[in-house]
């Protein structure tokens, strides 16, 4: 058995699970031409197929009028198989926040969320089914890891979101997706190869990819240091978001168990290397949990760790999961925490929480379906 690449964790697939079928979005442009030729079609059909998928979001072979009818079904079966289906959409915020529960080809469930704001549209996507990081306050972490998503399963969440925006399914008229955050189910850097492949598909120019800007993509991590360093060498201009949740090792060992392997300072040093190589400011994600990590002295410690760095702190009022002992901080404690960080000149904002009435925390909708 081959050893995983640095930062890529092994996983145990659910019993009976099968590998996702090969899809156009799994392949580079050169690999697509080879795949098309291998099934007896002219290599230029790969470009046509890419145009339909990445530029027109046209999944129905009947719409591919520039391809002979006799070739459409074969191309669809070999390169555009059905990867996932919508179990249901649920919406809130006057339908400008839409959460989608997907069923993958093997029955596995994952989620994505599309959020429309007055000045932008953001989509939060999953990179794994479940998560193996075991953070106790996280609904996905409580469920454990089912499996990694394929590159195409990651990409298809965005393709469908872009189609929905184009077709006016989200109120406000047709729109273009402006931001993608890898903050859904899973630890993106534990599925390193496929996440990097997805970023390339998302940002390759049309029709080879979706033509999105790397600067509009945020990749989160709990702090897999070898993978963070590897990611810094990819040459991306994406933003890196570190889910820190505690500035001291004693507490973070409990809240983010991977901290027992890579400590706070190691994680931050890797983040600063990414900032230096990418030229992008690092986002520090911090879920405020009442009486656990929201003490003003911890805000002061966090400010001291981050002072003078290319960084922004994103405080997240915890979206509690049913039956959990964890809950959001009191308003006065949140304010004191913010002021403790700001005292060190570190920029900080409190995230606008959306989707609480639709099982907003990642993993809640999939858990309720199970």
Automatic annotation (TrEMBL):
Pfam families: Radical_SAM, RlmN_N. The active site is at 111 (proton acceptor), 362 (s-methylcysteine intermediate). Keywords: 4Fe-4S, Cytoplasm, Disulfide bond, Iron, Iron-sulfur, Metal-binding, Methyltransferase, rRNA processing, S-adenosyl-L-methionine, Transferase, tRNA processing. CDD domains: Radical_SAM. One of its GO terms (molecular function) is metal ion binding. GO terms for cellular component: cytoplasm. Transmembrane segments: none annotated. Reaction proceeds by a ping-pong mechanism involving intermediate methylation of a conserved cysteine residue. Belongs to the radical SAM superfamily. RlmN family. HAMAP family: RNA_methyltr_RlmN. This is Probable dual-specificity RNA methyltransferase RlmN. It comes from Streptomyces noursei. The lineage of its organism: Bacteria, Bacillati, Actinomycetota, Actinomycetes, Kitasatosporales.
